[in-house]
Backbone:
């Protein structure tokens, strides 16, 4: 390219750059004036939106790879169940302690600090209510209370139908429904749901995704297998406890083994507040020594079987 043409091209480029810089400066000035006009009636302390800070830091343990529990997949749901089981036991233990001054075992399984009611409740909150976590706090509270009470009612009804036992009875509390749910515990479900969705879930999700992919799936499967076996064994042991109270002998070698390994005195320590119905329909409670003691309070009405 001849030298005169190169000179003209450089001059043209410089002119375009100067024009662009001038135009950009004017646009920026106009934008700042517009923003200032919009915010002139807004108090200075509210003009800058505070950056939401978390009390924990994100840690990428998988070096850029997607976590095995990313999003809301089956691995994340299983860990939500595990966390819910443990947190539920801590919640109930503290509630009973501050209410009665006693430290009482509140686990729902024979082995470990796990309560399946809270585990399934946490899964319900996660699957059904998580999409509404950014809604108004009162809406989250109300939805959590209704969902929690409905779930608690179903759990109580199923337990009595399948095992003939009762783990809680609110008959002596105001505003109860059949002794299975009441307003006080419904408010508790609402508070738990609100705290779970707005505060606990982000931290829990972060902790789950910090588990390295190298053994995260294996650990999840092993934990799930343990809890499934634990839950099944607990259910069979509770069923046999109720049958022994009614005077029914073991029907097979499995029930013989259950009666030997998990006798009444053992079960009374594992489930100190669980009541049953004897052969005459009386509500009874096992003492710490495994003896049957009749309850003075009226039992929950037996639901009609289909």
Residues:
């Amino acid at each position: 390219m001849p030298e005169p043409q190169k000179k003209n091209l450089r001059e043209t480029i410089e002119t375009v750059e100067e024009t662009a810089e001038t135009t950009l400066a004017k646009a920026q000035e106009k934008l700042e004036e517009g923003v200032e006009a919009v915010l002139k009636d807004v108090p200075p302390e509210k003009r800058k939106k505070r950056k939401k800070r978390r009390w924990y830091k994100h840690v990428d343990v998988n070096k850029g790879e997607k976590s095995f529990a990313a999003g809301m997949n089956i691995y994340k749901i299983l860990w939500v169940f595990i966390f819910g089981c443990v947190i539920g036991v801590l919640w109930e233990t503290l509630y009973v302690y501050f209410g009665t001054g006693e430290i009482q075992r509140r686990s729902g399984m024979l082995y470990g600090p796990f309560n399946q009611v809270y585990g399934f409740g946490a899964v319900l909150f996660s699957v059904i209510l998580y999409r509404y976590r950014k809604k108004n706090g009162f809406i989250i509270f109300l939805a959590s209370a209704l969902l929690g009470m409905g779930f608690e009612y179903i759990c109580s009804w199923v337990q009595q139908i399948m095992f003939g036992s009762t783990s809680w009875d609110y008959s002596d509390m105001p505003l109860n429904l059949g002794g299975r749910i009441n307003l006080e515990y419904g408010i508790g479900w609402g508070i738990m749901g609100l705290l779970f969705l707005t505060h606990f879930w982000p931290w829990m999700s972060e902790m789950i995704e910090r588990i390295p992919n190298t053994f995260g799936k294996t650990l999840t499967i092993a934990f799930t297998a343990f809890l499934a076996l634990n839950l099944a064994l607990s259910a069979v042991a509770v069923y046999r406890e109720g049958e022994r109270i009614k005077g029914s002998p073991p029907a097979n070698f499995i029930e013989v083994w259950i009666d030997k390994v998990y006798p009444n005195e053992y079960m009374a320590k594992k489930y100190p507040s669980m009541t049953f119905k004897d052969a005459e329909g009386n509500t009874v409670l096992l003492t710490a020594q495994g003896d049957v003691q009749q309850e003075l309070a009226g039992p929950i009405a037996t639901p009609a079987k289909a």
In short: The mean pLDDT is 83. Residues 3-47 form one domain.
